Amino acid sequence: MSSIDMIHAAADRLRGHARRTPLLNSPFLDELAGRRLFVKPECLQHTGSFKFRGAWSAVSALDEDTRTRGILAFSSGNHAQGIAMAATKHGAPSVIIMPSDAPKMKIDNTRALGAEVVLYDRGSESREQIGERLRQERGLTLIKPYDEPQVIAGQGTTGLEIAEQAAEHGVTQGDVLVCCGGGGLTSGIALALEEHAPDLRPRPCEPMGFDDVTRSLASGQIEQNPATSGNICDAILTPSPGEITFPIMYERCGPGLAVTEDEALHAMALAFSRLKIVLEPGGAVALAAALFRQDQIEGEAVIAVASGGNVDADIFRTALERFA
Amino acid sequence: MSSIDMIHAAADRLRGHARRTPLLNSPFLDELAGRRLFVKPECLQHTGSFKFRGAWSAVSALDEDTRTRGILAFSSGNHAQGIAMAATKHGAPSVIIMPSDAPKMKIDNTRALGAEVVLYDRGSESREQIGERLRQERGLTLIKPYDEPQVIAGQGTTGLEIAEQAAEHGVTQGDVLVCCGGGGLTSGIALALEEHAPDLRPRPCEPMGFDDVTRSLASGQIEQNPATSGNICDAILTPSPGEITFPIMYERCGPGLAVTEDEALHAMALAFSRLKIVLEPGGAVALAAALFRQDQIEGEAVIAVASGGNVDADIFRTALERFA
Predict the structure, then answer these.
(1) What is the residue-wise DSSP string for B141-177?
(2) Which residues of chain B register pLDDT less than 70?
């Protein structure tokens, strides 16, 4: 269902709306990584993460009547903000169903970006039931966070930019490390690289103990995580790779890499001091893998996608205190 | 001596070497600023500040024989790192004269970028004498941090990009706020805007109590600061505007703006949470002016140049602790 043509079409729709993020590097990080290291800072994307690309792609792909009735999403995090902003900029209403115990800042931000936020109690209510009722009552269209072809196509535009920007630096071969939750970004990038930079090899990066994608790629079937909480990399803790994203990754990705929470925090501190960007823990796992899993990486250059920067100030301060 | 033609020529020499930084914005900052607010994040430039542009411009403008004999600079900060990296990438030696009490990290970074660092005692030695001796002995060429036409031309390339990027957002009129020390960046941007975006008005921004450029623009002659230390915005504490930069600014700039140390720290915290970039205090004064001097700013849009991000972790943590 997903294809390079869909990614090209998404790139056309995103032009002038999503940011073309730069490709950053630093001689200090090159030395630490033992090879040339490039970082694609999607924390600089609108709403602070790559999720805006997929959201814009999916919202802009709807016909106008459908879009005008409104968009529905379940999310407590980056997908919520991406959908809210993309819908609002299209003049369309959006309803985001969030757990009532989600961080107040994330609820406030999602509302401020123009979404109606519907809170539910995780213990006693089913978000799916609430969503289904709203969908029927208002004719809303659900946009899923990763297992959705137009979302994958939007995330894939990151891969188009990586292929171009890496070539400008003379890099056409090497590993492309991607922070991976459900696999929307990884599979989109994999499709884009297959066409435009076939010797750049995409590889998912995950928190240790939540390496469902890494294990799924190894076993050849969808594996589950034992839990979806209990790790600082909250943005990328998903139950398992998606039914659409997994086959795409299985055909195109190299082995996954897993890093510890401390390694993610350490990478955040190095991104602060050497690249002057703000990363959230889940957005720093690919950089952490580039720095701390050198022996598992091949090639003279490596590219790490820094997927997001929506981190609370106290966690960021902790990272600096311990590792800067 | 400085001209738009020199800026265009510098842009040609910088292409593929300096980064074209993006133009960032956030609906949250627009609301705080009371108008559309755009930020040009030169903290994302090589070596963490715009200084790399001027350094590259000046080093690349030398004939090869001169360059090969080596470059000399006096600096304890961002100019040192810019010169070191630009010289090293040209295969040329560089000697940076730094006070022996400069922060160890800055000395280490400058060395790691390939420069020879010569330390002097601020109390008992004259850096000018040491520099003059080295210049004669080794045939080094001194590159001054701001009062130097090719440096101004390099900084002016920031203005070329602002003119283009602002137009992409439909902005051709409004104030362009620039963090200002000796005026190299401000005067370069002023020359570029005069040619390419004549209704964008450059305005220097300074720390309160160190507003020599603001006072000089008001009086029509070069005014001095009473001191060059004692403020958190260390990167932009200079004794007075330059003899070359002042006339350029006097003819082209709107009135200066001054902000407090707390306002600079507050702007750093907002840049962290809303733009995901790391600013140093001196690099945040223009953003602070956009946010906290709204009544002194004209137009429906404002552009703030965030000039650098070389900040110690403890100062950054303080900014987050107090304002995030």
Answers:
(1) EE--SSSSHHHHHHHHHHHHHHHHHHHHTT--SEEEE
(2) 1
Picking from A19, A20, A324, the nearest residue to B313 by CB comes out as A324
String of DSSP letters for B62-128: S-HHHHHH-EEEE-SSHHHHHHHHHHHHTT--EEEEEETTS-HHHHHHHHHTTPEEEEE-TTT--HH
The answer on pLDDT for A76 being more than 80 is no
pLDDT at A2 over 90: no
List the single best residue of A105, A276, A312 to mutate versus B (max B Cβ within 10 A).
A276
ipTM: 0.97
Which has the closest alpha carbon to B62: B90, B96, B95?
Answer: B90
| pLDDT of the residue at A262 | 98
- Residue B167 has a pLDDT of 98
Q: Which residues of A touch B273 (CB under 8 A)?
A: 313
The domains of chain B, with CATH numbers, are 4-49+148-323 (3.40.50.1100), 52-142 (3.40.50.1100)
Nearest Cα of chain B lies from the Cα of A7 at a distance, in angstroms, of 23
Q: Cβ contact (<8 Å) for A44 and B276? A: yes
Sheet holding B94-99, edge to edge: B116-120, B94-99, B71-74, B141-142
